[in-house]
Design a protein that fits this description.
single chain, two-stranded antiparallel ribbon, 4 helices, elongated
């Protein structure tokens, strides 16, 4: 097993220099969803350290889908250039850059953990523009719940 860890790995045209992959970790270091120098140093140092791939933290696809107001985002064209800067550096260090796309759903809308982690005080706080759906009442979730319930219920 150890013999393979530091060997190249190819999947669908992407070759990693080794099989060491840094998984995404929430950093709570963004400003308005923008990648910062923290991301450059955090991700870049893992790439410079030899990881084969470095995956950036969960990037919210909508502002109201963020876990916290300090989460990375990719819902606006303004987010592209700071991410490009970070990913270009990661690639220059020999690692394949990646990103985790995310939407926190009903769990979206908490403060940063070291600021108490409490729910945002209102639906419009920190960029939220819509109300949080009630559990299982979302028009996109309810049909799946009905199908799932039928399939797992005892006959």
């Amino acid at each position: 097993m150890a013999d393979h860890l530091f060997t190249p790995f190819t999947q669908r045209g992407l070759t990693l220099r080794n099989r060491v992959v840094m998984s995404p970790m929430c950093q709570y270091s963004s400003k308005d969803g923008l990648a910062t120098d923290w991301h450059l140093v955090h991700l870049g140092s893992r790439a410079a350290g030899g990881a084969g791939a470095v995956i950036a933290e969960a990037a919210a696809v909508l502002p109201e889908g963020r876990i916290s107001p300090d989460d990375l985002g990719i819902w606006d064209d303004l987010h592209v250039e700071p991410l490009r800067r970070v990913f270009a550096f990661v690639a220059a260090q020999g690692a394949a850059p990646g990103i985790q796309l995310a939407h926190a759903g009903r769990k979206a809308g908490t403060a940063t953990p070291w600021r108490g982690g409490a729910r945002w005080p209102s639906p419009t706080a920190a960029g939220r523009t819509r109300r949080r759906p009630a559990p299982w009442r979302s028009p996109t979730v309810t049909p799946y719940r009905r199908r799932w319930t039928r399939r797992v219920s005892p006959a």
